[in-house]
Amino acid sequence: MDTPLWLWFAVIAFIVVMLAIDLVAHRKAHVIGVKEAAAWSAVWIALGVGFGVIVWAVWGADFGQQYFAGYLIEKSLAVDNVFVWAIIFAYFAVPPQFQHRVLFLGVLGALVFRGIFIAGGALLIQNFSWILYIFAAFLLYTGFRMIRQRDEHLNPDQSRVLGAFRRLVPMSDTFHGQRLLVRKGGLIMATPLLAVLVLVETTDIVFAVDSIPAIFAVTDEVFLVFTANAFAILGLRAMYFLLADLVHRFVYLKLGLALVLMWVGVKMLLKIDVYYIPTPLSLAVIATILTVSVVASLRATRGQDRRSLPTPAEPPFRIATPDEDAELEPLFGRARSRHRSERPAAGPPR
Predict the structure, then answer these.
(1) CA 269 to centroid of chain Cα atoms
(2) How far is the CA of 302 from the CAs of 17, 241, 246, 249, 305, in angstroms?
(3) Closest Cα to residue 203, out of 85, 74, 70?
(4) To 5 degrees, how large is the angle CA 261–CA 263–CA 267?
(5) What is the widest separation between alpha-carbon atoms in the chain?
(6) Cα torsion angle, 104, 205, 285, 297, sign
(7) What is the pLDDT of residues 72-103, one digit of tens each?
(8) In the chain, what percentage of residues exceed pLDDT 90?
(9) Kind of pairing, strands 181-184 and 174-175?
């Protein structure tokens, strides 16, 4: 697959432009409703599918199928991110109007980290072909572990990352709008929103360890691996606001994701020395597993409405009052001096 350097820059530039448009559209903190989330989800899915159609038309059906297989894997595994984000936001009682900013920055970081992981994975595969055995074994192990732990969920209170963050970084006990850092009494402090962002970014790195080997099982083309990841991740924020109140209904989805990981692990093992499973067959198997798990989940939970995750009886953090926001000092530069009326009176002229 011939992908000139200008094409890479064009795709990255397009991603940056779309992120800028999204940021401008959500520059004011507000609650993202279902209709708005559905509209943005449609936009991101249309872009991802449209890019796949371009790949199919320009480079042929085989590469187009590889892209769609990778896109489907990344999009489905991303749903697990949505569940974890919902738990994190509920634990911190993050006001809904502040959640988009955290997810925007989280997705921005995810694109950077996944780009690094993809480049590292491609370099390892190119120089050490035996690494594919490790990737395949890891995917099989991860799928088996997901089946065993499918009813377990993240507990932010027991997170080592959060514990280390609280020990190392001074943190305010109030949300100050969408600020991540504030200065109080001359001391720069993190807001709870920064702690949430650190947890969101950490969980995405953990998920990337699973998803990057999985997509390398369906395509060797680094360009397709990166673009499938990028277009799947770009729609994560809208997907969260669309599905966050429905996480309780996808009871069999984690089992389906585990089977997908195990399937691509088997595909990778066979691909090394035994047999290359055709991409159309692999794509059909992945789509079937996901469809069955989603349909079975919705049938099993029929009649259940949208339901927010339970929040702590006493939220660990609160929103700062206007007076508390007014007392904040400039984050950078010299701290604010005391009010004129508080300054000592000047002495008599000499």
Answers:
(1) 28
(2) 40, 21, 12, 8, 9
(3) 85
(4) 115
(5) 97
(6) negative
(7) 988 888 777 788 888 888 888 888 888 888 88
(8) 17
(9) unpaired
The residue with tokens 């027991």 is 158
Query: What's the confidence (pLDDT) of residue 14?
Result: 92
pTM value? 0.82
The model's confidence at residue 60, banded by pLDDT at 50, 70 and 90, is very high
Q: What is the pLDDT of residues 150-187, one digit of tens each?
A: 766 667 777 788 888 888 888 888 888 888 888 888 88
| Cα-to-chain-centroid distance, residue 119 | 19
Distance (Å, rounded) from C-alpha 307 to C-alpha 243? 10
Q: Dihedral (C-alpha) 152, 154, 158, 164: value to the nearest 10 degrees?
A: 150
Distance CA 153, CA 81 (A): 12
Residue 42 to residue 254: CA distance in whole angstroms: 24
Dihedral of CA atoms 139, 144, 146, 149 in degrees, nearest 10, equals -150
Residues in the chain, overall count: 350
Q: Is 177 left (phi over 0), alpha (psi -120 to 50) or beta?
A: left
* Nearest Cα to Cα of residue 214 among 167, 156, 259, 179: 259
SS3 179: coil
Amino acid identity of residue 78, one-letter, is: A
Q: What is the DSSP letter of 331?
A: S
Are the C-beta atoms of residues 277 and 66 closer than 8 Å to each other?
Answer: no
Can you read off the two tokens belonging to residue 137? 């074994």
Distances (CA, A) of 242 to 95, 145, 157, 166, 247: 16, 28, 26, 31, 10
- The one-character DSSP state at 171 is B
> Which pair of tokens denotes residue 7?
């094409």
187 with 110: CB under 8 angstroms?
Answer: no
Instruction: Extract the tokens encoding 296.
Output: 């079975």
CB atoms within 10 A of CB 132: 19
**110 contacts 201 by C-beta, under 8 angstroms:** yes
Phi and psi torsions of 186, nearest 5°? 80, -5
Do 221 and 66 contact (CB within 8 A), yes or no? yes
CA-wise closest residue to 15 among 236, 221, 233, 237: 233
